[in-house]
Design goal:
With 223 residues, this protein is of the alpha/beta class. It is 35% helix and 18% strand. It has a seven-stranded mixed β-sheet with strand order 1-3-2-6-7-8-9, sandwiched between helices. Helix 1 packs across helix 5. The chain is globular and about 45 Å long.
């Protein structure tokens, strides 16, 4: 079953003529509408950008209207070892998200080589899971973690990592680990910490917008 998504297209252009496409994945217990506001904040810096915001395929067990890409074991705290890749729900989300991403160029007219894939929290983890297997323009990881060793990216791409020093959900050490894994691949990683919790503040959005603007400008030059 295909993932459902929100499509955001700047009024000044059409998705088929945008320089870049941003795909942003929501976190655990949220939905696509919850990250729509982030696109507006990013667009204030990068100029309006076409975006697609997919909904995760599973209902959250505790949050009405909330969705999940996969489940966590009881009392999980991001410090105990757990083989997420063995979970059927993660395997299903991976297949669905990969197929959905691969279908985007035909739907939007924008190739994956001009697509930024990113996500908040569990959405960032899914980006680090699925994104390396796609020829993306860039990846953007917000207050997130890698739930498994990050696969070798099939093409080079810049990566933005933003994390809060006071994050009470995903430990800051997880961001450090993600940064190390990506740098071991020889990727260009822009890393920045903020005095924030498990969130994306206006200051962090400004950095994300500048990152998207730089990637979009590079896409325009390649066109």
């Amino acid at each position: 079953m295909a993932l459902r998504a929100i499509a955001l297209t700047p009024k000044a252009t059409t998705a088929a003529h945008s320089d870049c496409l941003l795909v942003l994945l929501h976190g655990w217990g949220a939905n696509a509408q919850d990250v729509a506001g982030l696109i507006e904040g990013i667009g204030m810096v990068s100029a309006p950008i076409a975006a697609r915001l997919p909904n995760a395929p599973f209902a959250h067990p505790m949050v009405p209207g909330g969705l999940a890409w996969y489940s966590f074991p009881p009392n999980y705290n991001f410090q105990m070892p757990h083989d997420f890749s063995a979970q059927a729900d993660l395997q299903s989300s991976r297949r669905q998200l990969t197929a959905w991403m691969e279908s985007l160029p035909e739907k939007t007219g924008i190739p994956l080589e001009k697509t930024i894939m990113g996500g908040f929290s569990q959405g960032g983890a899914m980006t680090l899971d699925v994104g390396p297997q796609l020829p993306l323009a860039a990846m953007m990881i917000l207050s997130s973690y890698s739930h498994a060793p990050i696969a070798k990216c099939i093409t080079p791409r810049p990566v933005l990592l933003l994390h809060g020093r006071q994050d009470p959900v995903v430990p800051l050490a997880k961001a450090h680990d993600t940064k190390a894994q990506l740098e071991q691949q020889g990727l260009t990683v822009t890393y920045q910490e903020f005095d924030m919790g498990h969130e994306v503040t206006l200051e962090a959005l400004k950095i994300a917008g500048q990152f998207c603007l730089k990637v979009s400008q590079s896409a325009r030059i390649v066109s």
